[in-house]
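Researcher: Sequence of Ataxin-10 homolog follows. Predict its structure.
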Amino acid sequence: MSEHTQQVQESAPGTNAEVLTLHNIADSFDPDVPGQVHELIRVLDQTSTLLAADQLARENIGNATNPSIWPALSHLWSQTVHAHMLPDPDSQQTAIFGLLCASLAKFTRNLVAAVPRNQDRAFQNELLIRKLVYQYTSYSATQDPASYHVTRMLSQALSNIVTNNSALADNLWSTYLSLPEEQLILTRLFASPDARTVSSTFVLVLNCLHDSDQRIELLVEAPRGPRICLALLDRMASLFEAEETSEDGRAFDIGYRILCRVVEAGLVPTLYKKLTVEEEPITPHQTTLLKVLDSYLHSSKHPDYIATALPRQPGAPSGHLLDMLTETWMSLSTYAQGALKRALGSQETLPADASAADTASREGENKPIPHADTETMSMNVSEQADQDNGSTTSHLHEIDLLLPKVCEALVLVTQCLTTIALRAEEAGSRRSKPITPSPKAVMVAASTSSGQGFVECLVETLRLIDLFVPRITFGRAIQRPAPPDLQDRVNPNANISDPETISQGPDARRQTLTGATHGAPETETATETEIETQKAKAAAEAFAHIKRDLVRLLGTLAAHDRAVQDRVRACSGIPVVMNLCVVDDYNSYLREHAIFALRNILDGNLENQAVVHAIQPVGRYDENKVLQEFRGDGVAGE
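Model: Prediction complete. Tokens:
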């Protein structure tokens, strides 16, 4: 306890000297008199310092009865609000009123800290404080950096009033989530240009959600809850790239903790649905929510999160996270497939090498080959010829501008599903009984609205993505050589013992997203080549990691599951995975994940192994990681 505090208690028990001083100032206070305002600010700041250092002082001031601090405090808040309502104040008045508001908010913040009785009495001024927050979050106010300190003090005062006080938190939270949209001060505070104000607001929300599932549920279910969630996710999206040690980074950490509470309460499915926009495959807010969920699931701080992914008790309002992720994955994949097919054109079909492998495996089983267009079985979309003029100019067709965003979300959902599946297996290995139903079983049993199974949808999406997105190695788009005839590529003695030897289909890489032509002339300038390479890299960056994460999920599902292995073979997925056993700058560790997936698909499955042995490699990467076509009869010796 400070020496000053001891002297006050000796001369005025209950620290009534400070209360008396403030009471006398409040009685005659006129905000239009600058001298009185400055004197009040001085006394408030001096007392705030005392309150911050000494909890006993906070209790004594709050408990004083002769006179009481609370009527004086309410009067000062009322006068401060009145002062801010003056029409057309000059710059000097605006500045001094801002100082008054900040000092009064700081005094209130310190007075109520960790003293429940003081919190209850100070809450009577919440409406007045809310009006001032509204005033200082207007567009004109946020353009003045001098106002940031005031807004921050006001939000901190509200936060301290409800901290660890369930009754007040219930009252404030239900009120704020029922206000008319134009009065939602939380959304206005989230939009503040000042990172420290945003941090203070996030702390306010976090304090309201503390230790209450009901208040967390209100954040999603209340009339204005989704609107506040939208504003919260908007601000979180703006902070993703912030440095951890910066003010923005600290604000992000607190906002992340808020959303973690939503995840832990099992409310992600409900919130994700409320963020849906009709006829939109994915919204920016849904993507931000998926980013937070993905980060949460990967966090080592939450080893038992698997419980949040499994079905909740009957009647729970939030639904089932795993079902929501599975349905979202299938919806995004279906959309991506349609967009990719439209981009690739009507000639899109299975790669020729996949067709040959499927033919070889089915001949051994004496099964009929599924119907296919024979003209397209040996020709990739990037090699379509213009029948009118005999040219071999390749081109992409309709390009869906939403496809990159869909693929970004698809990567996030895929990572979430893979993490859940792997963690469930880890958790099951530590238990006497495995987790049922297992996440893998839920995914494998799922199907799209058109009846396409999850495994088949996964293989088809991988195949189309591999056709559509150029492979980038050391900054260059890699092109696959034109394949030989179908009958020349069926070789039962072929194998993939060399990971760098791959099976490839038609020249899908000659056509990049920029519409590069088939067979560029030798006179092409270096500048043109560099431009095309840069465009190809930009296109690949828009689809970064999607091949790696999709093939990783496929490998996870196929592990020790004969039914999944057989389904991969039946939909000609083995050559698709083999084509991914390559290096790609924008799919880190793609080769390793593809090889591991191939291992899981072949493990103990002779029919799948026969498919691999039936495929003859058509190319090999040279020392510069450029794919070179095998020529002549010397293939076996390479």
